[in-house]
Amino acid sequence: MSRKRSAVAVGAATTAAAVVVRDLFQREHSLLRNFPLVGHARYWIETFGPELRQYIVAANDEERPFTRDQRRWIYSSSKKENNYFGFGTDNDVEFTSGFPVIKHRTFSQSSAPASAPEAGHEVVLPCAKVVGAARGRPGAFRPTSVVNISGMSFGALSGNAIEALNRGAAMTGALHNTGEGGISPYHRHGGDLVFQIGTAYFGCRDADGRFDLARLKAVVAGAPVRALEIKLSQGAKPNLGGLLPGPKVTAEIAEARGVTAGRDCVSPSRHAEFSDADSMLDWVELLAAETGLPVGIKSAVGDLDSWHQIADLMATTGRGVDFVTIDGGEGGTGAAPLLFADTVSLPFFLAFSRVYRIFAERNLHQQITFIGSGKLGLPDNAVQAFALGCDMISVAREAMLSVGCIQSQKCHTDTCPTGVATQNSWLTRGLVPDDKAPRAANYITTLRRDLARVAQACGVDHPGLITTESVEILDGRRSSRPMTEVYGYSPGMGLPSDADCAEITRLMSDQRQGGSAPPSATSAS
């Protein structure tokens, strides 16, 4: 035994000595040249920095993009475990400017929310609007879920992750946005799809990369596509093209996108089919006429001129989009330059409120279904979005967390340790769709349950009926401002039409679950 230990010690010493010698004479890293062997600890700590901060350094409400509290809520919700928190909030409510406060109503005509922790998972929250109805699209429909899965392409996410999300969407009636990477076999597990059309027209292009209407119609006919979304830009990399390096373009990815395997896959920064608001609306109407589907646009928000042009043309020409998806600058992506991820495009609440007001000023807001995207898969953010006029929300990173993402922030390296954002076959094998699909479904149903509870606490039966008057924004501990005032809304702005409000209230009344005992005999008399 002693000989073995000696041999191990000699081997370790020899290896260490070799590393020291190499470090002393290499010229690439000055740190290792000056501090051989021990300098490697710095690079090791840097490599595992995000993981170390998650569990050791950062407080519960400090880390970004998602705090430990937020991740814990998503993880426990996806597993249907106890997602309650004890001992009060650890957010710095008293001294944080901009903190939202939702104002509950003591007396209300809405049903009392059921109080048991497991109650409400079965609640159905359909959209308050029928997408495409205002413009008479043949494929107009009422989405069965106000919480849906945002656009994340196969290629950015692994096939197993896409399959888990699609199956989770099918279990909950949620829509699954394909992202701009086309429809893969992993998208065909029962979930209804929103087909996203990006600047490279992946999945609906010809051999030269041009948009191919015939191929689009074939794709729509062969998959459960409910709507088309034209991607103008996204929050984390607005007006920026993309590149999937050739080595990452597998045969499966090439088939889904309509490109050549092994070659660089480029997304331009602009669309070739239109160049301004007028030609874009022409293309929208062409796609709607040829497919019968509702057609919308997705965009981050910077300069507002284009939004004024779109709204003016819709108000005067009879052409228009059926839905608008606004992505905030805090939205995620697989890879983006730091400058774009940090500082280009407005954060969601400023972006959405400014665009919504432009359409509302022209009385178009009730004809359009508004979808919010950008860290809205948390109940408090979602409630604010609905109050500002969102009819639905799309969740991306939160859905990734529900199927195993640990926020290691390695999406751009193809080394995601949980197999979510990588094409490495060894890593993707760790994500088992049979296990993760129910977790995605549990997360969606739990978020819908909490949204229903908050709506009932605010005195309404559906989150789409929450108004800006129900939210105040704190300015430190001594003052606050109503959300209506903060975002420049007029009273009642943010709500669907009276007819849509009445219809969604009727639909929700069929599934009310009161949490109170029946009135006593004394009260009844």
UniProtKB/TrEMBL annotation:
<dbReference type="InterPro" id="IPR024188">
    <property type="entry name" value="GltB"/>
</dbReference>
<dbReference type="InterPro" id="IPR002932">
    <property type="entry name" value="Glu_synthdom"/>
</dbReference>
<keyword id="KW-0560">Oxidoreductase</keyword>
<feature type="domain" description="Glutamate synthase">
    <location>
        <begin position="146"/>
        <end position="460"/>
    </location>
</feature>
<protein>
    <submittedName>
        <fullName>FMN-binding glutamate synthase family protein</fullName>
        <ecNumber>1.4.-.-</ecNumber>
    </submittedName>
</protein>
<dbReference type="GO" id="GO:0016491">
    <property type="term" value="F:oxidoreductase activity"/>
</dbReference>
<dbReference type="InterPro" id="IPR013785">
    <property type="entry name" value="Aldolase_TIM"/>
</dbReference>
<comment type="similarity">
    <text>Belongs to the glutamate synthase family.</text>
</comment>
<dbReference type="Pfam" id="PF01645">
    <property type="entry name" value="Glu_synthase"/>
</dbReference>
